[in-house]
Every structure is written in structure tokens, then in C-alpha cells.
Amino acid sequence: MFSSVLEAIGNTPLLRLEKLGRGLPGQVLLKLENRNPGGSIKDRVAAHLLREALHDGSLQPGGTIIEATSGNMGIGLALAARALGVKTILVMPESMSMERRKLMAAFGAELVLTPAALGMKGSVDKAAELARVGKGLLIGQFSNPKTPDAHYLHTGPEILEETEGAVDILVAGVGSGSTIMGTGRYLKEKKPEVKLIALEPLESCVLSGGKAGPHGIQGIGAGFIPDIFKPELMDEILTVPTQKAIETARTLLLTEGVNAGISTGCNVCAALEVARREENAGKTIVTFACDTGERYLSTELFA
Q1: Active-site residues: which are they?
Q2: Which of 7, 16, 112, 263 is in the most buried spot, having the most CB atoms within 10 Å?
């Protein structure tokens, strides 16, 4: 029995994609992070950063946090803040789904919307401005060096245990970069030959040296290189078109019964591509179901 909803975060199941992966040289395993209590992988980071802030005294009980988010981090923070007794101001581009707004509001968060044309950078700048004028503590997921720690301490060890050490390739989309940096660092320490493959939207391929642009894969592709993300540590960076990510998310639901969002479609699309390579015969590729499909009901995913 748990005494706090935050204790239910983590230890998510790992699912082999039997149907989508049938006949491929490599196998794809999908870690169901949408089984976390807030419905996304960001629950881990949100709970970790709030606990750290309360522990080191930068956040006082009953205080206020501020964060820029594309949605999932905001929902995770709103949940964790409610459990820990602090207030939340969340800044988000107005282009993100209506379901995200409603979930944040349901947890009691104050929501500030920024123009869609400014992308995530506009929300990051606005959050920093609110912190400068004393509205609360800026969490700063894109630059906070503690952001990857939740994945280093928990997600990485879980994957190594669940695969019995057989993980060969980690594939993950990059929003803040926390998932692949934290999980990847742990796996590389324990098994140096593990390969790390980062993903970004084709339409906004800044990690690959391209230009920022509008895209429809909510949760990744912030339009800038986050401070915590180190491209030089990646073995490969792949781009995925928005439409392909959407189509794969739909296929995942109809074939494997996994109800997940567009960023998950991006992850699975790329992981299957990697599994098709003959050089990866017999290899185990791990990727993530980042969130649930319900928060995309008003988007093209369910059009």
C-alpha cells in the first residue's frame, strides 16, 4: 500500500512489440511510461525535481514553482505539487492540445499561454521572466543539471533489470533531453557498448544542424538544443516526420492495443526502423511510450 501517489511513479512494464516487430532482425521493447499516475514519463522528473527543491531549501513548503512545458512535464509537476503541498504556474505554447490545458487546470495549476509562433522558446523566456519578478521558483527542466537524475537513478536500472542486461540500443525523442541523457548515462556505465539514438521532428531538426520550425510531435523538438542535452554523446540522431509519427501511433493502438500519443509514435517508428537493419539482427532495442492517447483527442491523431 502506498501513502502517496508519488510512490506509484516508476517500475513501469516493458512490452515486446510482437505484432509490429514480427519478422524484423531486431526486437523492439516498449517501456510503458504512460502507466505512471500522471500518465506520462515526465512524472519521474517532476517528482524528483520538486523533492530535490524542497530538500535543498530552494523551495519552501507552500511555495510556488514556475515551469515552461509542452504539456507532460506541466501535468507531472501539477500532480507532484498537489501531493507535496506547493503551488504551480505553468507556461505553455498556445498550440498544445486542449486536453493538456484541462488536465493542468484540474490539478489546480495556473496556466499562462504564449504565442504559438514563438514555440517553446517563447514559453521558456516567459517562465524566466515570471521567476525574475518573484512569482516563484523556476524549475528549468531544459537547463537544470538535476533533470536527468530521475532517469539515471530509476529508469536506467529498471531497463537493465527488466531486460536482464540484454539491452543493446536505446531510442528516445528529445524534448528536454532528460530521458536519453539520464537513462543512457546509466546504461553506458553498466554496459558501454549500448548505443544511444536520439530523435527529433524532421520539420524542426536543430539537433541535426537544421533549422527550427513548426511540427506536430508535441513533447519533443523544442526548437533549440537544451543545455542538458549533449549531441556528441549520441551514437546517432534520427529525424521523424510528424505524419509518420501520427500514423505509427495509430498503428500501435490498432495492432498492439497500446493507447499512446504522437511522441510515442515517433519513438516506435524510429525503433522499428532501427530493428529493420540487418546489422541489428538479434539486438534488443528499447524505447518509450511517453504518454497516453487521451490527451490528443482534439488533435490530428484522432481526426
Answers
A1: 42, 263
A2: 263
Give the C-alpha separation, 239 to 202, whole Å. Answer: 5
Q: Does the pLDDT of residue 67 top 90, yes or no?
A: yes
Q: CA–CA separation, 147 vs 125, rounded Å? A: 18
Average confidence score pLDDT of the chain: 97
Domain boundaries, the chain: 5-36+146-302, 42-138
Q: CATH code for 42-138?
A: 3.40.50.1100
In the CATH hierarchy, which top-level class contains the domain 5-36+146-302? alpha beta
